[in-house]
Design a protein that fits this description.
- The structure is a single chain.
- The chain is mostly helical and about 210 residues long.
- The protein is about 70% helix and about 0% strand.
- It is built from ten helices and two strands; from the N terminus they run H-H-H-E-H-H-H-H-E-H-H-H.
- The chain has a two-stranded antiparallel ribbon.
- The longest helix is centred in the last third of the chain and has 33 residues.
- It is globular.
């Protein structure tokens, strides 16, 4: 399968391995959760580290395994083809998502988990894969699955965790966070596409 070939084509993604280890360390120390979780009231008091650290907090082991496992796989894929984007996104995308939540979703009091970050990384990787071959059906199918998942969340109203059971019944799927990650991925892909086109025009002009 193409996915497995690309997965094992690159080197070890040490940055993403460190991020996964951080999420594991937090999961192994439940007492840290309240100090690191995205919490709107705490952010209003100046605890800005939560904008980033909250994404590495999970509500139970099933939540952690699903999110951290996918993060590592995506990190491996990105490190092989889009290393710079992957490194920047690991820092910048959680901050962007949290800022969007804080500005536009005042009802989101608490947030945790890597699912939104994962989806943003997946969208970017899928768009780049599709751009390499517009006739390829695989990457459009990935994007359609993502869009369907977001629509399902909206229709469902964000209640519950789908196939993943949270250890806190008050937690619901954060659809707004997933939409924010999609905006980040689309914007990043657009910028990279524009830069490539500009460089191609410069190269063509130099050759002419």
């Amino acid at each position: 399968m193409r996915f497995l070939r690309e997965l094992f084509a690159g080197r070890w993604p040490w940055l993403y391995l460190a991020a996964t280890a951080l999420a594991l360390l937090i999961q192994l120390n439940p007492a840290w959760r309240d100090a690191l979780l995205y919490d709107r009231h705490a952010l209003a008091q100046g605890e800005w580290w939560r904008l980033w650290s909250g994404h590495f907090v999970h509500f139970g082991w099933p939540h952690f395994v699903a999110d951290a496992g996918l993060l590592f796989i995506l990190g491996w894929l990105l490190d092989a083809r889009h290393r710079l984007f992957g490194a920047i996104a690991l820092v910048a995308m959680p901050l962007f998502i949290s800022a969007i939540l804080y500005r536009f979703d005042p009802e989101m009091i608490r947030y945790g988990g890597l699912s939104a970050l994962n989806l943003g990384l997946l969208i970017y990787y899928a768009l780049q894969g599709w751009q390499r071959n517009w006739a390829d059906w695989f990457w459009p199918a990935v994007l359609v699955i993502y869009v369907g998942e977001v629509i399902y969340e909206i229709v469902k109203g964000g209640r519950g965790g789908g196939m993943i059971a949270f250890d806190d019944p008050a937690i619901k799927v954060a659809t707004s966070a997933h939409l924010a990650s999609a905006v980040y991925a689309l914007a990043a892909w657009g910028v990279v596409w524009a830069v490539r086109r500009y460089r191609s025009k410069i190269a063509a002009a130099a050759e002419g």
